[in-house]
Design goal:
It contains six helices and two strands, in the order E-E-H-H-H-H-H-H. It has helices at residues 23-30, 44-62, 68-95, 101-125, 130-162, 174-185, and strands at 2-4, 7-9. The chain has a two-stranded antiparallel sheet. A hairpin with a 2-residue loop joins strand 1 (2-4) and strand 2. Helix 2 runs antiparallel to helix 3, helix 3 (68-95) crosses helix 5 and helix 4 (101-125) packs antiparallel against helix 5. The chain is elongated and about 70 Å long.
Amino acid sequence: MSGIAGKSVPILPPFRGALIPTKPMLKLALLPSPKPVSHHKVAAGPFAIALIATPLLVALLGFWVVLIPVAAVLFGGIPWLIIGGPVLWMGIARSGPNVDFVGRSVVAHLLGTPIFVLTYEIAVLGHIEWDSLLAIMAFMLMFGLLFSMIWGAVFGWLYKRFAKIEPRPKDPDIRDILENSVEKEV
């Protein structure tokens, strides 16, 4: 407390436990939002074809780059199907076919790759060797990030083509707005 003209003024407001998480705060953080979520129908056939064809198409078109895309299929194909598939399916079901496929595939990669590498390490070795685990995880996260973005974009393109989904109407640019305003004035 500091005094100004004989009055006591608190320096900080009284602490009322605002920094300690309460049950309602934890409940909000862990549970999905209570607002209704719009559900869109996912075309299962085109989805499955696009999900499987995406890594193969990228590898086929980019194999001339020192076989790096082919190695990406070997390292990332299984996590793409196991983790990326459900994440992309839920994205389409919740947000429709114009969902951000690249963003969703990056999130799936960043969340799923550590889990996949850890599970693989335990399944193959029977125990965890932290030095090799961290090296493998860093390698897969670095290269996988690039390929998750590429695969997400290609998946979105293939899914929309196979499901025959019309592209989203483009937003008007400044020329359209100016032309419409000039026509209204005349």
